[in-house]
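Students often ask why we bother encoding 3D structure as a string. The short answer is that it lets us treat folding as translation between two languages. Here is a chain of 356 residues written in the first language.
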Amino acid sequence: MNAAELPQALRRLRASRWRVALLAIGSLTLAVLASLSLGVQSQSMATVAQQLLSLLPGLDAWAIDGPQRNVLLQLRLPRTAMALVCGAGLAMAGVAMQGITRNPLVSPYTLGISPAAAFGASIAILLGWNHLPGMGVWWTVGLAFAAAMVCAAAVLALASLRGVNAMVLVLAGVAFTYLFGALTATLQFFASEQQLAAIVHWTFGSLNGRTWHEVAVAGAVCLVCTPVMLAHAGALNAFSAGGDDVAASLGVAVARARIAITLAAVLSSAAIVSFTGVIGFVGLVAPHIARLLIGGDHRALLPFAAVVGALLVLLADMAGRLLFAPVMVPVGIVVAFLGVPLFLHLLLTRRNEMSS
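And here it is in the second language, the structure alphabet:
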């Protein structure tokens, strides 16, 4: 390709990215409306759209009062909102972690965040704090979040002793993944049948019973962490291109950037899994799906992966709610069944991009 053809090739690339992004956003919008419409008491998408518009200032006259409005606003809408926060947050965290480690197999689960959160939740369940009136859910969430942050602090401290090296970061995360998995298994060994069932169900990952307070807390944490990851998109490009040496040669403060990105990714992941339980597959596969569709530039990859992750979790939640109704299959199980075939399809049909 000569110099004269380069601007035209770049324009085609940008146009292609915009088309893919608009298609993904349109698909996500339809999925949101479908999630809010379908259920035991189904509503038309037009009615749902009208109800949502009635929440805007000056359009309250469009509201349609009745039990269906309460179902929409108090049950389906917070559940859908949590699905969007969960998918977007875990996907962006996965992109960030894969970028700074240059390892395509890294995810929030790999660094021990999810197993640590499961250990914290297991403690709350074993002590019976999850049944305390009014505060039971928050005790479970609080201990899960605290355990996840302890794991993150331990991983970063261990990596800092060796200069915050990417390989040490990954290996430390793997070690703590096994450690907290063993600790959780130990608690399960001493748990009663009811406690064991509660612990296992928590590790499945679920969006059942999510409330606006929970959505607000998880969403606020992700909202704080997202600008940090986006601000370091250039550093992630440098890390992905050639590791620490290339990043340092381009003026990136390697240790400081890695710690900032890791903390942002860990904090958002911990806040999400503390409410939803272990949904481990999103942070691994959503970044790869996004990368295959839109390329490896983290300036576009981070927000696009958020859309892909949100769409993946939302579709998995709908499938779990509707396919086997009235039984609800946890979203953490369904997301693997949906994500693996999609990822393999993209891997086979677009293998040239993967090998380049």
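Translate back mentally: The chain is about 75% helix and 0% strand. Keep this in mind for the problem set.
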